[in-house]
Amino acid sequence: MKKKKFWIAALVMILFGGGFLVYRWISQQRTLQQAASNIQTAQVQEGELTITLNATGTVRSAQSATLYWGTSGTVEKVYVQVGDSVQAGQKLAELAKYSLPQSVISAEADLMAAKKALEDLYTNAEVAKAQAMNDIATYAEAVRDAQYQLDYFIVPAEQAKMTAMEALAVMEERLEIARKAFEPYRLAEYDSPTRQKLKEALDLAQANYDTAVKRLKYEYALQVAKANLAKAQQDYETYKDGPPPDELAEAQAAITSAEAAMRLAWIEAPFAGVVTRAIPLVGDQVTTSTEAFRIDDLSTLYVDLSVSEVDINQIQIGQPVTITLDALRGKQFKGEVSAVAMVSESTDYTVTVRLLEVSSEVRPGMTSTAEILIQTTGRSLLVPNEAIRYENGNQVVYVLKPGEGVQAVTIQIGVSSDSYSQVLSGDLQVGDTILLNTGDVSVARGFFPIMGGMGGPPPGERPQRNPGSSGGGQP
């Protein structure tokens, strides 16, 4: 009887335990089926991945200038208004002459005098040039004559060994000795042998002295002629191209100074552009540094963007840019990078974009947002970043193949955007279904067999973006 009760109790326990296991298995399967129905997947796509960088900035003109009055006075004439196109040097407004300071009024007379002085300078230079040419001819002939006389002048052999000055000194000394020797016999008998001998010596000394004097005279005449010729040639070099540079610069500076003083009486456009601000009215009293006009060259517009130091090395001149303006929502304008600053302001660098389309709707000062195209991949396989995991140093995606299970596929990624990554290699095809998050893989492991598994992925680990990429891109 006891044995029968034991077996009955054992059977009840077995039935109860088996029922519990069946219930637990059914519950797990229901949980897995419910989780599997919520698995998030995506398809491998083919497309172009575009990497962009966004930045904000302000529109500016190609050139801009704010113009101020340079003196005091009363506005007599205003020639332009806002929106008018002007050329460089065009008068914009003018002050009444009677209201100008005396220094400005007298500038007109100063200018006339300075121009007259410049004209005289050129006239005098022509006269000096002509005189120098005439002197060159005259003194060149004088040099030839003096050289001829010197070349054909017979100099005693003894004197030829000395310079003209040395010969003159020696001959003068000998002449003095001969004179002193002859002097006591000057009144002696004419035919006295001693007197005749001393007289011959005196005559020879006098002749030698005269020769030395004449030689020195010829040499001096040649030196003077050469000096005069050199001076004439120097004068010609000075004036052959007009007035001397220093005198010309001084005369031109006087003209420039007078013109600058005269221009204080009006304001003129420094370059071709459009009047974007016009303040003066006829009758206004103005003083030095009173603002008058603003001129902008609107033929080309630029946007100066602020780009972080983290991204600046991705920017290159010539990259295409799409620009939107806060004031013109819904419209886009094309541009290109035209300049990249070499130095930063704090941690940002200025990148200048040139608008390729000029529109009257776009005005300097407008706030803009720019999308700079950094890189495009061309046609490539693309997978969502959420699907990429790192396992054992490899980049892996899980491919879901109905009826076959989940397969771990090792891939190599290239360029990445905020949403997608380019697949450079790996056993993937367009249209393959891949799991998106870590939890999905865990569920899939319980619901589908794992093919080619590489171990569980680190929970929540995402792919690192390709160094140097930024912005968003869509396939």
Secondary structure elements and pairings:
Elements: H1 2-37, E1 41-43, E2 45-68, E3 73-78, E4 85-86, E5 91-95, H2 102-105, H3 107-151, H4 157-160, H5 164-182, H6 193-239, H7 245-263, E6 266-268, E7 273-278, E8 285-286, E9 291-308, E10 320-325, E11 328-340, E12 348-355, E13 367-384, E14 389-391, E15 394-401, E16 405-416, E17 420-425, E18 433-435, H8 438-447, E19 450-451
Parallel strand pairs: 16-19
Antiparallel strand pairs: 1-18, 2-9, 2-13, 3-5, 3-8, 4-7, 5-6, 7-9, 9-12, 10-11, 10-13, 11-12, 13-17, 14-15, 15-16, 16-17
Helix pairs in contact: 1-8, 3-6, 3-7, 5-6
Give a written overview of the molecule:
The protein is elongated. A six-stranded antiparallel barrel has the order 2-9-12-11-10-13. The chain has a four-stranded antiparallel beta sheet with strand order 6-5-3-8, with no helix packed on it. It starts with a helix and ends in a 24-residue tail after the last strand. It has four domains: 36-49 and 378-451, conserved putative lor/sdh protein from methanococcus maripaludis s2 fold; 52-58 and 297-376, Efflux pump adaptor protein, beta barrel domain (Elongation Factor Tu (Ef-tu), domain 3, Beta Barrel); 70-96 and 266-289, OB fold (Dihydrolipoamide Acetyltransferase, E2P); 112-245. 39% of the residues lie in helices and 31% in strands. The protein has helices at residues 2-37, 102-105, 107-151, 157-160, 164-182, 193-239, 245-263, 438-447, and strands spanning 41-43, 45-68, 73-78, 85-86, 91-95, 266-268, 273-278, 285-286, 291-308, 320-325, 328-340, 348-355, 367-384, 389-391, 394-401, 405-416, 420-425, 433-435, 450-451. The chain is built from eight helices and 19 strands. Mean pLDDT is 82; it is low at 450-474. A hairpin with a 3-residue loop joins strand 15 and strand 16 (405-416). It is α+β, with helices and mostly antiparallel strands.
